[in-house]
């Protein structure tokens, strides 16, 4: 979060664009170097420690307990970003104050507490408008950020691959675009009178254009990367695909490691995974399948962040099966599951989300108090699978269910194709797992296991004859 402070105190949108244009050599998944800009976040050991004060609002219909729990999550986010949380406040209001969000009186009380506790960062649990953030900073005279800025800062720290870094920067620039005027306030404070406002406004428009151009350039680069990702996905689409989705810190990476015997990063911190990781799983007594660990979701996930990460979420859209992982030990697991459901509807579309096969997986059963709690969880979620990714409890049952879905999704077909039609022969070879390959005169005959949805694609090749057969 050090850069957030420097951007604001450095004064001017020029500093934002300089930061956004600052080139860093990063390495993508294939080991290639690529210049990708980083803004908002510089993990600098010389930066002063952030002493954060959290602010939430309780509106009619909400409870004090619920808002305190929201601030608990905000505290985890702040700590993940490297801040020390030294205090919090919840303001009960009938409506949000358009100028200061929480009202002038409460703002003065927070200002006094912030001075007493040597606070240098105020974090609001809700998004602030540019005007609200500007007004609050003027009165508190400390750095003020909202939940979205905090999440963006964490994402900037966590992004490892070229694709993730670009997606984070697009989200950052989209967030910054309507807030550039706030960065130009120093112009109006430096001098008054005729002539001072015009040049500032002109430069503001220049900076807005430059930000839009930067976003367009990044989108083009992201499209190029996305094509490569799609091509790699085509090469492995012959296998059944399952994707793990869930709230951040639900144990998705732990489950992937348990099933694949791999060592994907596991962490109790939020958003430890930003880049999708796929592993081939050998399922004893059943078909092998691909399993993908995806980015975690969270309450109030910024919409433009979801939009920026659509390329990463492609694995979710193209999955044959979703494993919706829920931390059953968390007191608000029902709400977390609902958050994931809403984001999935946004990513997949409501109709597709309902149509996609999903297994509800209740994780962290080892953290439940007793056997009665386990029985209660099972009774409350009929059809769910109870597991502990940490201990392996329930994992064989989960693999059995995945195997059933994979078997149902796969059919064996006989494909006859003109042996001289190289394009058709190559397409058939790529379409599934070839069990038998014979040449009979001018015809090449394949016996192949394919996904049901790919049968029509084979038939559309024109010169191909497809017959369903009994795999047994």
UniProtKB/TrEMBL annotation:
GO MF annotation terms: GTP binding; GTPase activity; metal ion binding; ribosome binding
Keyword set, alphabetical order: Coiled coil, Cytoplasm, GTP-binding, Magnesium, Metal-binding, Nucleotide-binding
Keyword Cell division: no
UniProt KW Metal-binding keyword: yes
Biased composition (Basic and acidic residues): 18-28
Record-linked InterPro entries: G_HFLX_dom, GTP-bd, GTP-bd_M, GTPase_HflX, GTPase_HflX_N, GTPase_HflX_N_sf, P-loop_NTPase
HAMAP family, per database record: GTPase_HflX
Family that this chain belongs to: Belongs to the TRAFAC class OBG-HflX-like GTPase superfamily. HflX GTPase family.
Assembly, per entry: Monomer. Associates with the 50S ribosomal subunit.
Protein name: GTPase HflX
Species of provenance: Eiseniibacteriota bacterium
